[in-house]
Amino acid sequence: MVWQQHATRAAFFAAGFAVAAWAPLVPFAKGRLAIDEATLGCLLLCLGAGSIVAMVTSGSIVSRFGCRRVLNVSMVAAAAMLSVLGSVDELYLTGVVLAIFGGAIGTMDVAMNIHAVFVERRSNRRMMSGFHALYSAGGVAGAASSAAALSAGITPSTTAGVAAAALVIAPAFFGRRFISDKADAHGSLLVLPRGSVLLLGSMCLMMLLVEGAMLDWSALLLTGSKQMSAAQAGIGYAVFAGTMTAMRLTGDWTAARLGARRVVRFGSALGAAGVALAVYAPDSHLTIAGFALMGIGVANVVPILYSAAGATKAMSSEHAIAATATLGYAGTLTGPAAVGFIAQGIGLTAAFELLAVLLMLVCLFSSIVPKHEPS
To answer: How many domains is the chain partitioned into structurally?
Structure first.
């Protein structure tokens, strides 16, 4: 079982690495295709659309073919598409490649969380927060390595190729260690969330909407109402992401001792308090402290929601995880845009206040989360 645990960690790291390695390549793709920002935005929607479509059907696919096969195929597919993204120079072909890349990432996301639930059950202890910490670590490694290579003058095509080669290390070394459980399901590929899964997925949507909004809008809050220079404003999200990653490394230990429900309840409330501090603080330093408080609070909520969805009796684990992941990813996609529309209408400060409301809603609904660790 130890090898299955390591394989799960490798899958989470690889998923975070793949997504983040693409980000520094975006400006080069824009220049190579000679497109404007609006066209680039539409192009990037292909990645999101591919992910959503794949996530909706991935639960049934995993139940039919097993985690091992789905994880290995999706990781190799993601690596192949990433290598192409460094050099493709035709607009519509780029859209197709991005859609397949997004589909591979979405499938990997669902399959690795299903696999994580299986590993938790067999290990009889909480491990989900630690797995998600590896996803964050993979994101840092992917973005940093691609950015460093491009800054050193290495071409985008070579950078993408090296990143793709690094990505296939996971299936090469751990491919046989993944659990191959499958349910031999023969129902519809599309299964809608129901019962407790619908509520857990909605809570996941709210949490990831907050995280997505922090990525795109925290710097603007600092440069706007807090009057911090643009060159320094990025520290806000860095502090949020850093504290969140650090807390996930101890999240399983915390949930085992305090109980999963308390971590969700107090964590979401602490996150809301962090938003309030960030919004109402008189200076930028206290605002950054609020961001740190948010990171500490929200860090382990989403991993626990995934574990709770996998343990529910309302649906099979495969379909429950797929539904939760799909709703959560919808929050990641829509969060930044929603904050933008709200900020345009009533101001960015009010938009952040609404993020605190979402976190309090998660706190109010936390009683749906089981108290005890999986068994």
So the answer is: 2
